[in-house]
Amino acid sequence: MAVTIRDVARASGVHISTVSRTFSAPHLVNPNTRTRVLACAEQLGYRPNRAARALITGRTYNIGLIVADIANPFFPPLIKAAESQARKHDHHIFVADTNEDAAVEEEVVRALAKQVDGVLLVSPRMSNALIEQLSREVPLVVVNRQIAGIPAVVMDVARGARIAIEHLTALGHRRVALVSGPRGSWTSREIRRSATATAKTAGAELTIIGPNPPTEVGGLTIAEDVLRAGATAVLAYNDLMAIGLIEGLLAAGARVPEDVSVVGIDDIMLSRLTRPKLTTVATPTAAAGRAAVDMLLAHGDDRRTTAQIHLQTELVIRDSTGRA
Amino acid sequence: MAVTIRDVARASGVHISTVSRTFSAPHLVNPNTRTRVLACAEQLGYRPNRAARALITGRTYNIGLIVADIANPFFPPLIKAAESQARKHDHHIFVADTNEDAAVEEEVVRALAKQVDGVLLVSPRMSNALIEQLSREVPLVVVNRQIAGIPAVVMDVARGARIAIEHLTALGHRRVALVSGPRGSWTSREIRRSATATAKTAGAELTIIGPNPPTEVGGLTIAEDVLRAGATAVLAYNDLMAIGLIEGLLAAGARVPEDVSVVGIDDIMLSRLTRPKLTTVATPTAAAGRAAVDMLLAHGDDRRTTAQIHLQTELVIRDSTGRA
DNA sequence: GACTTGCGTGCAACCGCTTGCATTAATGGC
DNA sequence: GCCATTAATGCAAGCGGTTGCACGCAAGTC
């Protein structure tokens, strides 16, 4: 059916090993032979079967990319950047969606392990211990999590949360709510830690609401909790929740930002387009995707990087925050 | 390094072929043996290597999914649904982003062909002829394109465009602009054909603007073309362009919907959240993703489906349209 | 002219797994 | 009690490649 190395060998009158070398070690074959083999291959439409090659070389030229929810606008730019970067290096990407479920994450990593050179775990919900264990089975790069000995790309959300809280307290807010994210999220813990410390320093009261599903609906449903807490400002785990929250607040008759200021995190495309436009902490998702792929590929060459790359975040002030 | 079928065979004291059968043809092995083998496999953490298996069986349990732009909010729900459906049937998904480039599409299909059971081509920009040729090299299911003999899932945008135009003319609009999509898009041609016919019937004048890149920026930059054309209503190729267009119109001092009514297509999440909320033609993207995967998998069993599935669209009236 | 050198190629084993066929042992029929 | 079945397992070839090794041969050395 499909054209194999043997067809090319037959057509060009050489042994299959010569054809093989034409592709994977061209300097070992005579230029004339090489030209002839390439011509035959071209004419027959031959393409090496990567899976077969991987059986021997151990390199699949595939990467696994595992995210919690493809439909969450935070992920697509990261996926896109990772895919692009991977393909630039002639790799293909398996994408899996775990629906925020740690058990699915584990299962998918294991299922993919044999047919990839490594796995990118983006915003994992698994425990550190499990990630460490899996990283012994397949090269892993983690995005948005810090674990000793595991290569990682982390966005500095702690700083982002600090700046966001400082922005709010500078506007005079003294009762601030923190809408936290899903259980198992390292990012959510970081935000919480940093926001708590910053609020304390600034002498503001911080009410923590959560954990919550990191979606628009998650934000919408806690609007009344926020009002009940008497908060005049809110920092949400991500933009989607912030936007949902604003919907909920408006529906409950509160004005944004006159009655309640809202800050999101991520700076997804959406946040420029809603009304009011969302003040948010921009995270460099595309850069993270590229960096993670680069780490994974470097990983392959010199064994076992454990480097951790930090990417900076910044506050983008728009229209959803105002004076207390 | 990794545990192979031989390790399991050694541990359980049987031949590798028995281990193999334990997994792929359990009824052929004695229940006692089977239990023992499974226990050993479990204990060693054995997982069959799918790539190796595929070498013989020809079934990879992988699917390729090719889209024009992952970051375009139209695609993620489709990708998510497809991935979910695929995994339900124990398949994994390669995702590739072509950046709206037909040449990249072709290259990726070919690159993926050997390691997948089939490819889903979503909103392809390639020519029909090329798609037909590729479909002889690897099973293909196309979404949003009709080609004789190629299995497809199509959303009935023609009807959607008709209803959208009827909605506008019923509101009294007589000068309507159609903001078309990217070159090579079947959907864009369908919309154009249907909108043109409907406008004619309704006695409205239709100005076609485009082709344009199917993005927010694409919509933004043609706002003045729309105003110059004197249109009081616009149907845009997709929501993203409609939203960009509204931004542009507002920036130019026009009110929406008082001065200009805008209708989008797709009903992406965004369209519920912008102000004004977007009137749009909802397309069943998640259902399309699931259906396409189902077709591809069915394809594998009985050879060569050529069925085409049609999915209905419907108009969602929100706040971006009003009387002329 | 015999001897090293090294280039280009072929040979064959092997990667992890499947599968048609052969082999063996156990079962049933009469 | 003997033969034909059948069930369970082993054997080995082969899927499409890669790669260490050996071989042949022309060129260079003295």
Automatic annotation (TrEMBL), chains A, B:
Listed InterPro entries: HTH_LacI, LacI/GalR-like_sensor, Lambda_DNA-bd_dom_sf, Peripla_BP_I
SMART domains named in the record: HTH_LACI (SM00354)
Keywords assigned by UniProt, alphabetized: DNA-binding, Transcription, Transcription regulation
GO terms, molecular function: DNA binding
Annotated HTH lacI-type domain residues: 3-57
SUPFAM superfamilies, alphabetized: lambda repressor-like DNA-binding domains, Periplasmic binding protein-like I
Cited Pfam families: LacI (PF00356), Peripla_BP_3 (PF13377)
CDD domains: HTH_LacI, PBP1_LacI_sugar_binding-like
Name of the protein in its database record: LacI family DNA-binding transcriptional regulator
